[in-house]
Design a protein that fits this description.
There is one protein chain. The chain is an alpha/beta fold. The chain folds into three domains: 18-222, Rossmann fold (3-Layer(aba) Sandwich); 232-316, Ubiquitin-like (UB roll), CATH 3.10.20.600; 319-413 and 433-437, de novo design (two linked rop proteins). It has 16 helices and eleven strands. It has helices spanning 18-23, 28-48, 60-69, 90-97, 99-113, 127-142, 165-172, 204-216, 218-222, 255-262, 295-300, 319-333, 339-357, 362-374, 383-397, 399-405, and strands spanning 76-81, 117-123, 151-156, 199-203, 232-239, 245-250, 272-276, 284-285, 309-314, 421-425, 430-433. Helix 2 packs across helix 8 (204-216) and helix 4 crosses helix 5. The longest helix has 21 residues, at 28-48. The N and C termini lie far apart (44 Å). The model is unreliable at 1-5 (pLDDT under 50). The structure holds flavin mononucleotide (FMN). Residues 52-56, 58, 80, 82-85, 160-161, 163-165, 201-203, 206, 381-383 line the site of flavin mononucleotide.
């Protein structure tokens, strides 16, 4: 069996110029949208069943309809290109391959909700993608293929929370990436007394699906994927696999297909021990490789699809060390505004670090279990909920391994840094990782050192 890159996001070849994009049907999505009108566009996206690719799988049309219906004179739309989930590189891949499609999708979203401005929030450090977007933006504008709504890039910091929608709104207002309480669909940027500026925020990939749905139709979109998770998604697979990479595949294929076929399986006769879907959901074990990769099947398996970035560990990896790497990432990136994080996220990481160092006791395990009960439900964001899901799943599925590690040095010593990706070389299929991340401190400064 082979799995090739699908055609939905035109990812087979990079789209180099606006005329290449037009020859692939670029611009037809926006024209179709203008013919159908805002309500027709929202109805089409609803019927296609498009769900957000930024982590939660929320129905896109529901979000758009809420902002369109809001009784406010000003509304905005935002493309979320902050991409900070460990093990995920799909949005940057997509922008490198075809920045036009994202921008057309954003223009369609702006048209559908009646927005007066559109933003792309992106990390300042994503220089290559910023350059691509600026060129594509200028080309699309001069080809008159973007409608009338102005689109502005907002460059932000490297912090994970920048990708969280309520924090991204703060960054648009030139603030720090600290999540506020109200979601963007209720209070958007630059809210005033006479307008709360309700705002739609969508992930890059979500928006990139939009022009093709408008252009090719509902039945075409639904011809791949499952009834409740239609279409394809762009997976990033990394870790202990022969061929790490980025693959667009229909939703609903078994995890095994991604691991064994697309990524060539694990090397050296080893077996899959665990698969982490980024830092914000429960892990899956090697016995769960038949789990279909769609929103509902992943939820039924006790985890979430997240941003479809899957990190594979083989049986040479210590599960305590791997869990600690993700947990430390979440503790460092937490802004500690809510009691859930303040009182839980960091102490879970400290207990895990003690166990990994060989100094852990039963009491540490008990503390982790107790804290996992209280770190759910952060008021401002889902970071602590992700921490609880991740750590709880590791403990319940690898209970014996955690216990065997208590009071003993790591039985499987191996360097397992959090897979924070900085680059992807398609020709060699290699990801580059942020080596400096290990120096990052909870106050978001960097310790001296190498
Ligand atoms: C801690 C945290 C980090 C997040 N980072 C990102 C991100 O980098 N990119 C993204 O699209 N969504 C991210 N999200 C999800 C966004 O808050 C938001 O739900 C998403 O952009 C909505 O887009 P969608 O409906 O198209 O999925 C993050 C959420 C949390 C809690």
């Amino acid at each position: 069996m082979t799995v090739g890159t699908q055609r939905i996001l035109a990812l087979t070849e990079p789209v180099a110029t606006v005329s290449d994009y037009v020859s692939l049907g670029g611009g037809e999505g926006l024209s179709a949208a203008e013919r159908r009108g805002p309500d027709g566009v929202i109805a089409t996206i609803a019927a296609a069943g498009l769900r957000g690719r930024g982590g939660a799988g929320f129905p896109t049309a529901t979000k758009w309809a809420a902002v369109r219906a809001a009784a406010c004179p000003t509304t905005y739309v935002v493309a979320n290109a902050a991409e900070g989930e460990p093990g995920t590189f799909k949005d940057r891949f997509l922008i490198r391959r075809n920045p036009y499609q994202l921008l057309e999708g954003l223009a369609i979203a702006a048209f559908a909700v009646g927005a007066s401005r559109a933003f792309v929030v992106i990390k300042r450090r994503f220089e290559r993608e910023i350059e691509k977007l600026l060129v594509a933006l200028a080309e699309l504008r001069s080809a008159n293929l973007l409608g009338s709504v102005p689109i502005q890039l907002v460059l932000g910091p490297d912090e994970y929370l920048f990708g969280e929608e309520k924090a991204a709104i703060e960054v648009i207002e030139c603030g720090a990436p600290l999540p506020r309480i109200f979601p963007p669909y209720q209070i958007g940027p630059f809210a005033r007394r006479d307008s709360r500026n309700p705002t739609v925020m969508n992930n890059v990939e979500t928006l990139a699906h939009v022009p093709e749905i408008l252009r090719r139709g509902i039945a075409w979109f639904r011809s791949s994927g499952t009834a409740s998770s239609p279409g394809s998604t762009v997976f990033t697979i990394s870790g202990d696999v022969r061929r790490p990479g980025v693959h667009e595949l229909p939703l609903g294929l078994p995890l095994r297909v991604l691991v064994d076929v697309a990524a060539g399986g694990v090397a050296g006769g080893r077996r899959v021990k665990a698969v982490f879907p980024g830092a914000s959901g429960g892990l899956l074990t090697g016995a769960q490789l038949d789990t279909p990769l769609d929103f509902d099947s992943m939820a039924a398996a006790g985890t979430s699809l997240g941003s479809a970035g899957l990190v594979v560990y083989d049986d040479s990896a210590c599960i305590v060390a791997a869990t600690l790497a993700f947990s430390r990432f979440l503790a460092i990136e937490s802004c500690a505004q809510c009691p859930a994080c303040k009182q839980g996220t960091r102490s879970i990481t400290e207990c895990l670090a003690r166990i990994e160092a060989g100094d852990g006791t039963e009491k540490d395990l008990g503390t982790i279990v107790a804290k996992c009960e209280t770190v759910t439900g952060g008021r401002r964001c889902a970071l602590p909920t992700g921490e609880a899901a991740l750590v709880r799943s590791a403990l319940s599925r690898f209970d014996e391994e955690f216990r065997a590690h208590l009071g003993r040095p790591c039985p499987l010593p191996r360097d397992l840094p959090v897979p924070k990706m900085t680059d992807y070389d398609e020709t060699t299929g290699r990801f580059a990782y942020d080596d400096r991340y290990r120096l990052k401190q909870p106050d978001w400064s960097f310790r001296e050192g190498r």
